Amino acid sequence: MLMYSLSERGAMTTIAEHPKSGRVIKVLQITDTHLFANSSGCLLGLNTEQSLNAITEEIRGHHLPADLILATGDLVHDGTTAAYRRIFSHLENFGLPVYCLPGNHDEAVTLQRTLNDGIIKYTEHAQHANWHFIFLDSTIADSEGAHLTGETLEQLEARLQSAPDAHTLVCLHHQPVPMGSRWLDTMAVDNPEAFFAIIDRHPQVRGILWGHVHQSYDGMYKNIKLMSSPSTCIQFLPRSDDFAVDSANPGYRWLNLYPDGRIETGIERIAILPGNINMASNGY
Ligand SMILES: [Fe+2]
User: Is the pLDDT of residue 21 over 50?
Assistant: First the structure.
């Protein structure tokens, strides 16, 4: 596998520099918000709602307007209806379509039941201009690990067959490739060969995007961009064999999707952490 790295902020290029590219789809990835039923809920000492509020302010200052938001799992930490109401309220305030995926801390049934047919969506796919977004559930019930079931893989294949001419971004919660972090990679997708065999049959796939890893990652699989985003709360130390917290601040990913299939992307982080994190923690 050919890998490469980008600087975290990516290549910020204005639309005006690509006069032939037409309409660009502007996407924000907000992931691993880990909200609780109670607004005082903390993860390793950090209030996750206050951290999300800081991220929201950063987005409002730098990356609006946008076309849509991808919320790639672990929306809540405790799986409660109250926590989903809380996170949906935050996301609805952007006034954009929000596509949700379940993570290993989510309760997919509760997530779905708490939706109100508004701009927050839990769906298998969506199309914006000539870009197709496919959402895969990588969770395993009562496990932190990840697996793409036969049904999910059939869904992926069918969705790709249905729109061969649309540039495609495939989104899931867990990483489909190793992050080089022993403890985190015990929770990677456990059947990546089946996944990439399907991807290989469909050249319209331009990018694969995930959450879960609480860190920024930019790589390549053949000519497909591989991307993860920092969490909006605590960060995991990259390439650590054991659980370790990173001192990097919370962040989010932005993507500009061009009509010709190009992806520009980068990471933004808040400048000041709204609280303190227990950096010595060995788990949560
Ligand atoms: Fe998470």
Answer: no
